[in-house]
Amino acid sequence: MADTTRSDTPAPPRAAEISNLSFALIISVPVLLFLLVVVAYPLAYAFYLSFHEIRFFGGYSATWNGLANYSKVFSDQSFWSSLGRTLRFTAETVVLTLAVGLGLALILKHLPAKWRWLRALIILPWAVSPYGAGIFFTYLGRGQTGIGTAVAGWFGSDHTLNLISARFVIEYLAVGAAWNMAPLVAFFLLANMLTTPARLYDLAKIDQMSRLETFWHVTLPPLRFTLFVFSCITTVLAMKTFDYIFTATQGGPGGASAVLTYTLYKISFVNLDLGYGAAMSFFLLAVILGATGLLYLLWGRKEERQ
Amino acid sequence: MARIDLRNIVKTYGSHHAVENLDMTIEDGELLVLLGPSGCGKSTTMNMIAGLTEPTSGQILFDGADVTSHSPHQRNIAMVFQSSLLYPHLSAHDNIYMSLKRSGLSKQEIEARIAHAAQTVDVTRLLDKMPSQLSGGERQRVATAKAIVREPAGFLLDEPLSALDASLRLSLRAELVNLQKRIRTTMIFVTHDQVEAMTMGDRIGVMRKGRLEQIGTPTDIYNRPATLFVAGFVGVPPMNFLKGTLEKADGRLWLINPSLRMEIKGEFANAAPQKEVILGIRPHLMRLTEAGASALPLTVYAIEQLGNEAIVICDGPDGGKIRVVAPAGFTAPVGARLDATFDSAAARLYDPASEQVLAVGKKA
Amino acid sequence: MSSDFTTMNRRAFLRSTALLGATALGSSLIHIPFAQATEFKPASGETVYFRGWQFRTDVVQNNVDTYNKAFEGKVDYATVTGDYPAVMEKALIANEQLDVLYANPSSAVRYNGGGWVLPASELPDGKEIADGMYPNIREAWSVDGKLLGLSYFVTTRGAVHVFTKPFLAAGYTEEQLPTNWDALYDTVYALKEKGVATPFLPHWFGEYFGISWGFVFEVMNRGGQVADPATHKPALTLDGPAGKTLAAWKKLWKSGLVPEEVFSYNEAGYIDAFRSGRYIFSPQQLYDLKTFNDKAQSGDVAGHVSLLPGKEQSWGLIDSALYVMTARKGRSDPLTDDVKKFVSWYGYKDENGKYAVASRWLKENMLFSAYKAVMESEEARTAVSTSLMRPEDYDRVLEVYSKTPYPSGIWNVVWSEEFNFWLREKLFAFLQQDLEAEAVINEANAKITELNERYKI
Amino acid sequence: MTGRNTKTFWLVLAVAVALLWTFLPMYWVVKYAFMTKTEIARFPPMLYPPEPILASFFNIFGFDYTTAEGTVFKASGQARQIILGLRNSLIVAAIVTAITTLVVVPLSYVFARLQFPFKGKLLAAILLSVSLPPVSTLIPFYTLYVQLGLTGTLFGLIVVTLTITIPIVAWMLIGFFRNLPPVELLARVDGFSRLYTLTRIIVPMARSGIMVAAVIAFLFSWNEYVYAQILVTGSNAVTLPAAMSGFLFQVPEPAQLAASLLLSLLPPFCIAFFLQKHIAEMHIA
Hints:
Structural class of chain C: alpha+beta
Shape of chain A: globular
Number of domains of chain C: 2
Strand content of chain C: 5-15%
CATH architecture of the largest domain in chain A: Orthogonal Bundle
Oligomer: heterotetramer
Largest sheet of chain A: 2 strands, antiparallel
Order of helices and strands of chain A: HEEHHHHHHHHHHHH
Number of helices of chain C: 23
Number of domains of chain A: 2
Distance between the termini of chain A: 45 Å
Largest sheet of chain C: 8 strands, mixed
């Protein structure tokens, strides 16, 4: 008890409570060291490669060639067209994922209690690997095997309805990517929706808001931060996508779905042009960071302030 | 139960001064309320007393013993946090139990003390419930039980009532005061609500921007606000302010402003002529009159009927709002011209620059 | 028994005489003859790593198990998935634990260029092995006179299969089957006139052996070359076979007869598409005649799939694979000897002097071999004949097979895979973006020149 | 009331659409597992297996399957790889999930709840590694692994997978921990050490968030294909996705592909199915 303590007794050392910094260090330093070794090392190595021309025939050689690899990227037509596809795929995937996620969340929210178990079914696509999703959407979309042809068949048509077409294969792939990722978004949004006070909906009724207005002014605002977080996550994942497209279309038809990761794969793994591949991969990294940074500037900062 | 001394406490976060040179004593068994707007440093001060935050410099003494570097637990304080924070995954009983887990008491003794504490704040029937199943008031009581079960040297409450609705706050306020008097523990209560402060505190410490503006009994604070800030912060309705210049004429002291020339009576020893001042007067001390020469000209803006009296809110001569207490049922059309008079001896004068009180009227 | 004697060569003869005629007793011997056992028996006690792509991995595993059991071998077999040549190249660069692998000849040449290959010529009976092969294939698999590997399989990729039922239903007879590319395209358009929506499934799929190989074999079937077989100088011309091929392709693409999705098919999709019976003609793997005529696998077309006759021109190109030994650094000499022993047993003759593995492939999957002795046996004829629509097709198969050319100009050179991928993209662009044939040909020639310069050829 | 009826009607319709959206892509391929090659190849495509057979499930585990009519479906040569892949995938996913959870929970807690110098920079470094595309780190990883002799080992694959799971799970958990009430204050007043607070108070409180983190780690690890494809394919450390891809490339076995795909979906489906209610409790905003 405090009154038994006298002023001349030395205070017990505060060591009983360690500081934030030391606690943080104890916890995070081993992990960060691990990440440093296994992430920074490959990154540094890729950085090294990007300034060299690597050859394997007639003996391995790495010749310093300065910024040549980087400048080559700028004049490489296939880089720009793949970048365009990546951006198109990413933008569509993000919009579709959030829209579908929101739609699913709204449906799940309105499920009566006895139908709650349906939630457990709706989450399932999220558990499918991008690899598996690629296979699903290949067979689903091909004119030879796909749903389009099957449905056309019901109406007596014997035409194929091919969804893997150069004109809209990116859109089709974006639908598949959204199928894969939207359930998780839906569940996080649902978690958010369930905390929105019901009173706000009463208020909206009193204000005679239309359904759309209610959605816009009552349902949506509390979700905006989650939507922002997922727009970032989806952007990063969409830009990194490789295995999904690799199994779904192999970059085809032709090169119509050769996104940046796929082009990188070809440069590094098929042509073994490691230096050039490394340089281009830094452009991809820059694009990913740039896109998330831009999202943050345009949207995230606003959400954070609120 | 302890007397708590704060000596020259400073707390800085980088270049931001959260608390500056704070000296304060909380007497044993006293209920001190720390009052101020958000960001004034009152919570920081309490966290330093609790031992949750270490002061940048200065000393904290419990019964004369330096506890500045002691952990909260070593100080034997108890605390109720904002919104009556509880461990959400533990039942009410277990929440209370956590206070004693480290006490070294026997299981039996702990159970006895939990039972007693629960009884004291009447939560016995709630012990098996989870926090999410409790109402706001129930949570508050459980949090209180959790605090008192330790029989602490100091009992610290950080805006525990702020999330509750008005009527509940009213009753819990009384309960807390009653409890404090019963168990006679030193209690520090932080709030930004001046009514809460006035109704609960033995003494009130008003803080602003990291400084202690004034410390004293509620009557002291109300009647003799030491600074312009305290004057404006404490009291319902708030004190009226009039800007003006002091002038000596005919051996008398006048307050002059474009629409007013008013004699200031009473002793204003350090009032220098030609000085810009702000005159403060409580609405209760003003009376409405018919328009007249020496009175304050006002225009009716709105009238609030309180049942026992009416508060007439007017546009004053210098653009600010002036509130005057009138008898219940007083009516006047919006925009009507009225005049108000008051005994300038009951008014207080403040220096606009230092915001300190200039002189004190003769009568309080 | 009789085939054992007919296929017995000098080495087997010597070996068997050393055993006092033990081979003559052949099947009566239950135990493995001692001298032969030591010849294949590994000595190092270390593991031999054997990797390949997935094709009947059950058969491969079974063969490996047989070897391991008979000789207490430690051969570790596993498959590699995905982009096989690229993954393997990575493994070779990294000097991974890898001793024997499957390789297409173009890859083998590239691996050899990287210095990662131990040529089969360096096997003790390397000369004998080479002599036993068909000369055109031996040449295809050799660089600077070194035979790079042993025979896994040889087939014709791009032999044009025909689903005869709808063809005959359209009023044609078998005698009217087209015998060259131009005639084939004419028939395709004629069938379209008769209301057949999809008469032709061209070799335009997305794998590394898809559209680009389709171009290469069509140019060669028309009597041209992509690059000079000896100097590797570009050889495409607008008014020659290349120009004709591209013109025919452009016309076909614009006719709308080819579903765009073909471009994104992997081989599975390509085979399944033909198996569905939608198409009448399609250049496919010669050995798939067996699967297409197998009721269990291809119920809708089985019994009705034949080949376009090869009497006038060749069809397709030689698609083959070898068992290649690596020259991995740091491998002990005894282990290298074990690798040689295993490869010799697996890729050539077993302890009984039989081409056990090669014969099994022929029987079970109609995979042809480079070894004359395997192909020219009665056993082979029986095995192949029963796999076809009708036994008489066997002659047609041999006719097509014997004429098939090999694109050594672009395959027996280290830049083969690089050019292949470049060509694949360029051809897709040619069709999809409607490029000029002349520009494509010029660019292809320029690309070959550039690659030659880069690799100093 | 008609108003209520129309509302139910729209809800039922919406649920039907959602279920169709969810299951159609899976159904379209999974049905192949119950069909013969001929049926799969039939054009126009069949909507359902006319006579469902289980041949492909026997085949992928190395058994022949004979139908009543005597047709034999031969065992797949990939059986050994599939079984090995299944085992390895389970091992890798279990270990990765355990390590990720053990490491990330304290890490995200520290970043979410404590103020300390360089926090922003360290956090940015973690988030940067989320953004790294595998295609650009694959080659360096591969060369590093070859030097260390880690290619074709489960250990090596686990390490690589951790570099994927740790940052992304940390990213999600940090958001979750930020929203927990500030019970550390209570714990300090109650006299508990930081470690006790973390392990005995925060962890039980954050159960649902930690479960979700574990599920995410499991899924990322279970579904990882790109690294496995390069680092362990062709070895005894092959994982299920890499083993399965044999049915996709080179040899067309859509039925066996579908069967093994279905097999590979079962563990994550079970986990997602039983833990979805925790996800519905997860607030990150």
